[in-house]
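DUF5053 domain-containing protein, pasting as requested.
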Amino acid sequence: MDKQLEDKIRKLVSKFHLLRTKDGSEEFDKIWKDLNAEIPLEERREAGRILSDEMRKVRENRKRTDVNVRTGMGELCDVLSLSYIAQHYFQKDRSWLAQRINGNIVNGKPSAFTESELEIFKFALNDIKNKLSETILNIK
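Structure tokens follow.
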């Protein structure tokens, strides 16, 4: 598949926001129809794969404002060192992590974890759990 066609497919994903309105949906349908006409029949499977990959990337980077981490953590925010987690697992500062945990409004938008950041946060908590378990076993 030629590079220009691949770029057009990747740009199509950035137009998904048009689907939120009726006029936008019509505009998106026209863009999709025009693009689909350009793709040779034998390359449509690969085009679908590229589109799928781009959509997956967008989903991974989308902010998960539906997840309330603060409520899920309860007292753990007081027990754990958010500075340690922020520095060692995200290479960020404590305020960055606290904003996401608390859902603070930053630059007019609610702050939230992306899908991949949420996975890193889960990994961090699990890693700390394992370190605590090892420490408990080592205390005699």
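Note for the archive: The chain is about 70% helix and 5% strand.
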